[in-house]
Structures are given as structure tokens and as C-alpha cells.
Amino acid sequence: SLSSPFPQRKSKITASRKLLLKSLMLAKAKEEWDQEIVDKQAEKERYLAERITPLHTSGLSLSQLQDLCRELHEKVEIVDEERYDIEAKCNHNTREIKDLKIKVLDLRGKFKRPPLRRVRVSADAMLRALLGSKHKVSMDLRANLKSVKKEDTEKERPVEVGDWRKNVEAMSGMEGRKKMFDAAKSPTGQ
């Protein structure tokens, strides 16, 4: 048999041992996760107890209750403003993170372009896609072409059908040359 240059090493850990280790790791991770949830809940309760003082409304007069309500409203407004500011910062940061992720993908060159297909698009549809709903004018390219009438083309090139030998014989003598000279002279003279 052929021996490979890199002999396969036998795993020192058996499959059953690997499975046991995985289950122990998962059990430990679940235990830590449960403990983290309990710690977060205790931290939340401690923070709320520190921030929120218990209300004693018994035995207060009407004016004292009104003052207490005004004070609570002021606190609520301050907390609401802080919440709004933090939310705005959070939204700004998430947008910035999104933009930076896109830039990173562009710089890495991992952006995959979809396969493009040829699509026939009229000039109107193309302008509508580019300009959106602003595009009102229909662009008919054929309307801008110069129209040519058949009668004009026929007038420009009168075609005489005849025997070419007769023309050659008529032009061959002095009379023919005189006719050619007169014919050439007459359009410019008029």
C-alpha cells in the first residue's frame, strides 16, 4: 500500500469522551447563562430601589399632593428627555455602523453583483425610471425625424429611359457639342 507523506494521527480522545466533554461544556455554559440572568435581575432591582424612593401620600394636604405631582411630572419630563436623547444617539450609531459595514464590504470586494439580463426599455420607461414621477413629457424619437415625401424625391431625379446609342450619336458631331455647351450655359445664365 502507498504511504502518505503526512501520516494520519490517531485522536487521543475517543468519540465517547468527546461527547461527554461537549455535554459538560454545554451544561457549564447553561449554568453561567442562568447565573448571568439572575445577576442582571438583581442589578435592575438594586438600581430601581436606588432611583425610585417610596411615596408616602397618606396624611398630605391637597396643596402638598399637588406639589408632589408637579415634582413627579418634572422628574418624568427629565427622564423622558434623557430617554429621547439616548434613543437618538442609538439610532445614529446604528445607521453609522450600517454604513461602515457597507464600506468594509466594498473595500473587501466581497460585494457580489447579480447577473444582469438584457431588457428592452423604451426611452419613456428609461426616463420614468431615472426621473421618477417628474417625467411628464413623452419622448417619441420618430417624431423628430425629418419626413420625406415621395413626390419630392421623384422631382429631384428625373429618370429618362432611352437608348444610350442615340445619345452618343447625337452628341458625337459638332451639333451635339453645341447642344452640350448650350445646355451647360442655359441654367447659369437664367
TrEMBL record:
Top-rank lineage group of the source organism: Eukaryota
One Pfam short name: Troponin
Entry's Gene Ontology BP terms: cardiac muscle contraction; skeletal muscle contraction
Coiled-coil annotated residue ranges, if any: 30-82
GO CC terms of this entry: troponin complex
Gene3D superfamilies assigned: 1.20.5.350, 6.10.250.180
One MF annotation (Gene Ontology) recorded for this entry: actin binding
InterPro entries: Troponin, Troponin_I, Troponin_sf
Keywords: Acetylation, Actin-binding, Coiled coil, Muscle protein
Complex formation: Binds to actin and tropomyosin.
PANTHER family listed in its UniProt record: TROPONIN I, TROPONIN I, SLOW SKELETAL MUSCLE
Family: Belongs to the troponin I family.
Function: Troponin I is the inhibitory subunit of troponin, the thin filament regulatory complex which confers calcium-sensitivity to striated muscle actomyosin ATPase activity.
Protein name: Troponin I, fast skeletal muscle
